[in-house]
Design a protein that fits this description.
By secondary structure, this protein is mostly helical. The chain contains 42 helices and 11 strands. It is 64% helix and 5% strand. Helix 29 links the parallel strand 10 and strand 11. The longest helix has 46 residues.
Length: 1016
């Protein structure tokens, strides 16, 4: 067995600590089931082949001393069906390991939380104040040790029960904590970026296996508690696991068709249905418990301090399939999902709230409400009045249920274009027009219960959900690329002949002056009959759809309009002008119902961002739009006016993009430019009395801003968070964070803890000028090294296209969105950041996440070797930003395998290219070793990840098995590309079709993605 061969060197590689016995036991069980299924389905021959392939590598992932020619002969000699079965088997193995690890993490977090709670109880029960503090510290230390394998680093606390005792020990003023909690605003935005390679069908099977593992835990705990060594319940569950894995083996892993946008909506929002709707109330409860234990007089934040958004169905940047109609149907889908959740909760409440008038009183306001309902819905009264004549809560819930059903039915009809017009003009009676109306009825029941001394947790949870999700489930963000708006304005202006020359030929100053003039007049710019091209009409209709959605669903459904590739002030004003034409901006009052969010992505745009925003803030009409209208700029009038429609007022949201800045400039330069831009933007906003909400466009991989959210938030510049942050969550990250309830809660809690911690306990190191100067030098040097390879090495593009599976990745049916922004020439500028990162991950280079860092650090160290090394070590200890950068590079380097990467180069290059491609590889190899050695010098560790036992274990668990899958991929890619070249020449000598070969190659991509736990 693979695990047994792994265990033979456990002491040497130290994969498992003594606290990981449970994980080892579960891995052994799952691997045994895996082998059993493969033997039953394919015979002992496959199991023997896998073992033979597995012995190619050591447990650390290095190819053994066996001649590589024999390895190649073994792989190349496999029949296509044998190679495909082996690839599928390894892919299944990795996905089973991932499930077990997630299950283990969730179980560990539950045990740690229980231990921490017990420690906090001890502290509260101790009347001596100093002992109370000490016990609280013990609880935090216990949690930290459990979570990170014994490290003493307090930065890794990450939970409410760690945070609030820490704030108390540091004597943070309660008033300061209270102010922060009042403005606490954390927003996590789910996107449809194509990094989720696993089919939805497979995800459901994974969830069933996770559920069975949880049941197995309970069964084992029960029979061990009774002194038994086994039980029929456990054996039955293990048999069910075997059946699930066997069914999984017979299921196709590849997407059967290119998903539509609405398919992506379904895939993404099912996390709300399965986990988040029920888990989120617990997040608020946990915060309140920890806060009350340490600061009983501080009022907790509103329940909606952590909210969710979605781009799925609203992000049209480069995706022609996100049409206005698709966006409308997405909003209907969202509302239907949450209404169904509410209906299920009302059904449960009807079971619970059985109080009788014989034994409990009710207030007059509830009786009055029941009378109004009787008049409005006599059919419900006639049907249920006798059954519930003494049970007022059940009768009230019956009326609520009927209104919800009517609201849901109307919503389902709205998704039908033929019925939409009638329903928007003629609203049926007895529906809820908003989530607030629904919540008000629940609050009425709650007040009545409280007045009679009762409390109902299920009702509390439903009220929380109504406040959190309303009738929209989540905010739907719109996004479009800046050039689409410029092109639309140009087409309209040219048609009307209102400019002395074409709009595109105007200078930036001329554009801004004309746009400001148009924004101050009520005269419409767009004619009723639109004699324009399809793209122009679609852009105009998108704005009109946004207004239509707000009219039907309320302003909360979509308030954010993101402009990707923002380059100038005019990019923002163009969107505001189109919003005016759609009725979303009133030029007379300068009021608007949308927030326009510029997205700064490239390094040059990030550098210019403060200048662009300052120019915008200087425009009175723009400042008024942020404030809520011209009247709100007048301090004397402002006090007499109601709150503006968009809350909070005077808030500017700005998005910073990690993906394109990294592809453009490399990891270190990208992160530093984003860091600097945030500080500069904060300084620009402050004189205008504006608050910033920074929106981080993070991906799943390190090369696109990914990595642990807790450390990333703490590494943000001091003074830039202030209780507010917005972050994208995408692709495989959703599955890793939100598949299981306890994992979801843990990730949400650590993110919230980090925001509070970073806002109240900023380090101040970000403002040390000499440190900033050094980072500027390092970033500039890293950028130069990165670009000299990626954009200036003449052979690099050919190298990339040949030695990575980028051509095949573009054929994966994992997204409705094209792999390139624009069709035409296949160069790096048009390639999206996700397939760029994805391909380097598959071939084990992981180039975008580290290249250039070693050169920059080495150059700095050469100036003053001893002194500068001491300085970098001090940065690593004290400066959260620098530590985050170094830690991410270290984690990425641990997944790099130059041995297998060189195999890709050697086998996939054409004979005439070998010499020039080997030169490129040697350059990459030198940079890898340079970077690795300097990183280890800075963190003073003997090998990568030595300071993070959990992550080291996770990487090592996969390294020993992922290499043969890489060999299989290379073999299948080689055959596929040979077939393609033969087809181009017109003479094909192949036993297999191109479709069969492509299928095999794509299956290996699936498997390696599962093994790396990353795609793009």
């Amino acid at each position: 067995m693979l695990l047994e061969s792994l265990q033979s060197t456990v002491e040497e590689v130290n994969i498992f600590s003594t606290s990981d016995l449970f994980l080892r036991q579960r891995l052994k069980l799952v691997e045994s089931l895996w082998e059993s299924v493969l033997k039953a389905e394919c015979g002992q021959e496959l199991v023997d082949l896998l073992e033979k392939l597995r012995k190619i590598c050591s447990p650390e992932g290095q190819v053994t001393d066996k001649p590589k020619t024999s390895i190649n002969e073994l792989i190349e000699g496999l029949e296509l069906n044998e190679a495909i079965r082996a690839a599928r088997a390894f892919a299944l193995y990795f996905q089973l390991i991932n499930i077990v690890e997630q299950h283990y993490e969730q179980r560990d977090q539950q045990l740690n939380r229980r231990a921490t709670y017990q420690e906090s109880e001890k502290a509260r029960n101790n009347h001596a104040k100093e002992e109370n503090k000490a016990n609280g510290s013990v609880g935090a230390d216990l949690l930290e040790k459990a979570l990170v394998g014994g490290t003493e680093n307090q930065e890794k606390g990450g939970t409410f029960h760690w945070l609030f005792p820490q704030l108390k020990r540091l004597n943070v003023p309660p008033q300061q904590i209270q102010r922060l909690l009042e403005q606490l605003d954390i927003r996590l935005v789910f996107t449809a970026h194509p990094t989720e390679i696993v089919r939805h069908t497979i995800r459901l099977k994974q969830r069933r296996i996770a559920t069975l593992l949880r049941r197995l835990d309970y069964a084992e705990e029960s029979f061990r508690g009774m002194g038994l060594s086994s039980s029929w319940e456990a054996e039955s569950i293990i048999e069910q696991l075997n059946e699930e894995i066997r069914l999984w083996w017979r299921t196709d892993e590849l997407h059967q068709f290119k998903p539509s946008v609405l398919d992506e909506v379904d895939y993404t929002l099912h996390y709300f249905d399965e986990v988040l709707c029920d888990a989120l109330p617990q997040l608020s409860q946990r915060l309140q418990q920890a806060l009350k234990a340490n600061f009983p007089r501080i009022k907790p934040p509103h329940n909606t301090f952590c909210r969710f958004g979605s781009w799925v169905g609203g992000d049209r940047d480069g995706n022609p399939f996100v049409t206005p109609e698709v966006t409308w149907r997405t909003a209907c889908y969202q509302r239907n999902l949450i209404l169904e959740k509410y209906l299920a909760a009302i059904e449960d409440l009807t079971e619970i709230l059985s109080s009788s008038l014989h034994w409990s009183n009710v207030s007059q306001d509830l009786l009055d409400s029941l009378e109004r309902d009787r008049v409005a819905m006599p059919e419900i009264y006639d049907e249920l009045a006798i059954r519930y004549r003494q049970e007022p809560y059940r009768l009230k819930l019956a009326y609520i249920e009927k209104r919800l059903e009517t609201t849901r039915d109307r919503n389902n009809h709205l998704a039908n274009p033929e019925k939409r017009q009638i329903l928007t003009e003629e609203t049926p009676p007895n529906i809820y027009h908003s989530g607030e109306e629904f919540e008000a009825e629940l609050q009425l029941i709650k007040r009545n219960l409280e007045e009679t001394g009762l409390k109902c947790q299920a009702l509390e949870n439903l009220i929380f959900q109504a406040q959190m999700f309303g009738f929209t489930l989540t905010q739907l963000d719109f996004r479009q690329e800046s050039s689409r708006h410029s092109e639309t304005i140009e087409v309209i202006a040219n048609y009307l002949n209102v400019l002395p020359r074409p709009y595109g030929e105007l200078s930036e100053t001329e554009k801004v002056n004309w746009l400001v003039g148009e924004l101050q007049t009520r005269r419409p710019l767009i004619p009723m009959e639109m004699p324009f091209d399809e793209k122009t009409i679609e852009t105009i209709e998108t704005m009109r759809m946004l207004r239509y959605l707000q009219q039907e669903f309320g302003v909360e459904i979509c308030q954010t309009y993101i402009i990707s590739m923002t380059n100038d002030v005019s990019d923002v004003l163009e969107v505001l002008l189109l919003a005016k034409e759609a009725g979303l901006y009133d030029p007379g009052t300068s009021t608007t119902t949308i927030r326009i969010v510029p997205l700064f992505e490239t390094v040059d745009d990030l550098k210019r961002a403060p200048e662009i925003m300052d120019a915008l803030f200087k425009l009175t009409l723009y400042r008024a739009a942020l404030a809520g209208g011209y009247d709100y700029l007048d301090e004397a009038k402002k006090e007499q006016l109601p709150p503006p429609e968009l809350q909070p007022a005077n808030l500017q949201e700005i998005m910073v993009g990690y993906s394109d800045s990294n592809k453009d400039s490399g990891f270190l330069s990208s992160n530093w430019e984003i860091h600097k831009a945030q500080k500069s933007l904060q300084k620009v906003a402050e004189p205008y009395g504006l608050a910033l909400r920074l929106f981080h466009g993070r991906g799943g991989s390190v090369g696109r801003g990914g990595g642990p959210a807790y450390a990333a938030i703490l590494a943000q510049p001091t003074g830039t968070i202030n209780g507010r942050i917005k972050i994208t969550e995408q692709g495989e990250v959703l599955a890793s964070k939100y598949s299981l309830p306890e994992l979801a809660l843990y990730n949400l809690e650590t993110a919230t803890t980090a925001v509070i911690q970073a806002s109240l306990l900023g380090s101040g190191f970000d403002d040390i000028v000499p440190w900033n100067d050094i980072m500027e030098e390092l970033a500039s040097s890293a950028r130069k090294a990165y670009r000299s390879l990626i954009y200036e090495q003449p052979d690099f593009l050919d190298f990339f296209l040949s030695v990575t599976p980028i051509p095949e990745i573009s054929q994966l049916q994992i997204s409705s969105r094209p792999a390139r922004r624009k069709s035409g020439k296949k160069d790096l500028s048009t390639l999206r950041a996700i397939p760029w990162v994805f391909s380097w991950t598959q071939s084990r280079f992981l180039l975008p996440a580290w290249y250039g860092v070693g050169t920059a650090l080495e150059s700095f160290l050469q100036q003053e070797p001893n002194e500068n090394l001491k300085l970098l070590r001090y940065f690593y200890l004290k400066w959260p930003f620098f530590k985050m950068v170094i830690s991410k590079v270290e984690m990425t380097l641990s997944k790099v395998d130059l041995q297998i990467a060189h195999h890709y180069v050697k086998e996939l290059s054409q004979p005439e290219d070998i010499e020039r491609f080997n030169k490129v590889f040697e350059r990459i190899s030198q940079e890898y070793h340079r970077t690795r050695d300097i990183i280890l010098s800075i963190n003073e560790q003997p090998k990568l990840l030595e300071g993070d036992a959990g992550l080291q274990r996770s990487v090592q668990l996969r390294n020993g098995t992922i290499v043969p899958l890489g060999f299989l991929q290379v073999s299948l890619l080689k055959r596929l590309r040979q077939y393609t070249r033969q087809a181009e020449s017109g003479v094909i000598h192949f036993r297999y079709s191109k479709e069969e070969l492509l299928r095999g190659a794509l299956l290996t991509i699936n498997g390696i993605a599962a093994g790396m736990r990353n795609t793009g």
